[in-house]
Amino acid sequence: MRRGLTLVELAVVLVLVGVLALAFSSLFLMGVRTERETGLLQVHSLAQDLWDTLGRDVRGALAVQGYSATGFIVSGVGGCVQYRLNGGRLERRTWTGSCASPTGTFLDVLNPAGLPYAQFCYDNASAPAAVALMDNPCDMASPDGKRLTLRLQGRDFLLPPLAVSRRTD
């Protein structure tokens, strides 16, 4: 009766174990890469939604009022829209009637993401025609090198700042 393995049998087993280990590590790395890409796709989707919404509201505005580093109100033909930064969250509400008397409930624009360092700034301190959203300090006069940090699931993603101008027809 023979006991143990021959060198050939041992070599075959080691080759099979190596191939299986390579396959499992490739699957693991593909999963990690897919998770990272999914987060990046979600960030780009949220940024595009923000650009579309903020752009539509500001471009269609008749006036920008009540503006500060933490928010502003735009008045338009269809009513009023208010944006505010509240604890790293960007919130938006809409209402009809007087823009001087805000009503309605704020909704989180970027849920589940946040803007931990963001603030608003404007092209003209007395009558803004353009609104920008970027990391503090917000300065439309020198936007070079500025960023907008979007935080998603504890990770920070650096985006270019958002800047939108009102249409002046």
TrEMBL record:
Listed name of the protein: Prepilin-type cleavage/methylation domain-containing protein
InterPro entries, per database record: N_methyl_site (IPR012902)
Stretches that traverse the bilayer: 7-32
GO cellular component terms, semicolon-separated: cell outer membrane
A Pfam family assignment: N_methyl
Natural source organism: Thermus scotoductus
Main location: membrane
Top-level taxon of the source organism: Bacteria
Subcellular localization, as worded in the UniProt entry: Cell outer membrane
Key words of the record: Cell outer membrane, Membrane, Transmembrane, Transmembrane helix
